[in-house]
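Running this now, will post back.
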Amino acid sequence: MAIYTRTGDQGQTSVIGGRVDKDDIQVEAYGTIDELNSFVGLAGSYADDTLFADLKQDLEQIQQELFDCGSDLAYAKLGERPYKVGADLAERLESWIDRYQAENPPLEKFILPGGTALSSALHVCRTVCRRAERQAVSLSKKMDVNWEAIKYLNRLSDFFFAAARTANARQQTPDVEYVRSAKVFGRKS
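Update: finished.
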């Protein structure tokens, strides 16, 4: 079976229910989710099977859900099929965030993305996830979208932040504070 189709040689690609230009914001949105999925796989490859068994399992589940997110954003028209991403996924991410945050040292200032290789990879996931979210919001201005997928991406970037800090904490690598940061976390409004 050939993996090439030649159907995109003129600058268009298929979405569910139609065709669009390859630089369309819809393709950018679900394409960035695909990029994120690859980085999640890379991050998982840095996770030790013993020390990070829970995280590896979570990352694999996230990869499945990112395919669902991309699929939900690939419809030509809202409601052509039932969506795959529901509110339950963002809610479940919140419980995962809380679980990882419980392991992390208190945080008062912004930190530099980095530390261990795993933490660094998770920070890359966080930033790519934020871009995917921004593009999905831009897409929502052009067409109706599944807002649960956007909520999921928003929560997912928080998950990557918490998990990146846990990766450092479990490997006894301190987060590096941004030296010119004010105390922005843990203060009362």
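The two ends are 60 Å apart (CA to CA). More later if anyone needs it.
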